[in-house]
Amino acid sequence: MNETINIVLLRQPDEFDDPLIDVLRTGARKLLAQAIEIEAETFLAEMRDLKLADGRD
Asked: What is residue 13's DSSP assignment?
């Protein structure tokens, strides 16, 4: 059986050379970093007053 298989190479996200895409990616990375930092600070603030079963911090 002779089948023809067509393989189409897709462009990788880093291959796009568009200034607008670069600005959007940079902004998205900054927003994600800020969100992660806020989540970590909130988590640590919630856990700050907790103690282990033996009374240690």
From this structure: G
CA–CA distance from 23 to each of 12, 14, 15, 18, 45 (Å)? 17, 13, 15, 9, 33
Task: Check residue 24 and give left, alpha or beta (phi > 0: left; psi -120 to 50: alpha).
Answer: alpha
pTM of the predicted model as reported, rounded to 2 decimal places: 0.59
> What is the distance of C-alpha 1 from the center of its chain?
46
Helices (H), 1-57: 19-47
Tens digit of pLDDT for each residue in 5-54? 888 888 776 666 789 988 999 999 999 999 999 999 999 999 998 888 88
The DSSP 8-state label assigned to residue 6 in this structure reads: -
